[in-house]
Amino acid sequence: MLNIISPIIAVFLGFLIVFILKPKEPKHLKLLLAFSGAFLLSITVFHFLPEIYQESHSQVGLFIMVGILLQIILEFFSKGAEHGHVHVNKEATQFPWLLFISLSIHSVLEGIPLDTHHNLIYGIIIHKLPIAIILSTFFMSSKLNKGKITLFLLLFALMTPFGVYISQNFEIIQNYYYELSAIVIGIFLHISTTILFESNEGHKFNIAKLSTIIIAMVIAYFI
Question: Which residues contact 219 (CB under 8 A, 6 or more apart)?
């Protein structure tokens, strides 16, 4: 049940932070992004990746590379929303379908291994929270009506639980579970490393960001 409810709560919490606090200081959001990138990377490397290599007899490396390539393709349409960038026209009034579809594919895939790899839920929660904040901040300043904003965020919140659902109930997903999990590893590796590189202005680490990254890695290691 935690795997179903937690991603929804993370998105809802991100929206509430924007709606109530209306954060304007990007520094703190960059630290949160850095923490989420380091934590997701560490969870993947410490827990998810070794388990898949140990349990799978398929070509794990090949499917990891497929995941990296797939995420690059998705970001062509989402413009990097998965790691903190939203470049949709604020003046637009139409529902941002390309952004929604690319984020949905990403979210459904990341939900598939959650039922087996329970530590991943913490990485996905911490990953979704800053993304929800960024999306909510953008939408609140755009010309999209509140109905479309609510629909987007609601469907976005449901996509990861939907991935959990299909992994539990569709045999074809279960038959290719390790291949799909390896693809998700590739997606996580690409997103987390991109976040870490992009969260540093001028590609320089300062003490706050370095400390944030180290803390995230230590927490992920001991989970």
Answer: 39
Dihedral sign for Cα 169, 173, 176, 177, please: negative
CB 195 within 8 A of CB 34: yes
Q: How far is CA 164 from CA 144, 181, 216, in A?
A: 30, 12, 25
Report residue 145: phi and psi, to 5°: -75, 165
First to last CA, the chain: 19
Q: Please check whether residue 190 is in contact with residue 72, taking contact to mean a CB–CB distance below 8 angstroms.
A: yes
Residues 157, 8: contact at Cβ < 8 Å? yes
Give this prediction's pTM.
0.89
Largest CA-CA distance found in the chain, in angstroms, rounded:
50
Token pair listed for 50? 């070794």
Q: What is the pLDDT of residues 47-63, one digit of tens each?
A: 999 988 887 767 899 99
Q: Note whether 61 and 113 are within 8 A (CB).
A: no
Amino acid at the residue 4: I
Within a 13 Å sphere around the CA of 128, how many CA atoms are in the beta-carbon half?
A: 30
Instruction: Classify burial at 199, counting beta carbons within 10 Å of its beta carbon; exposed 0-12, middle 13-18, buried 19 or more.
Output: buried
pLDDT by residue (tens digit) across 2-15?
A: 778 989 999 999 99
Please state whether 14 falls in left (phi above 0), alpha (psi between -120 and 50) or beta.
alpha
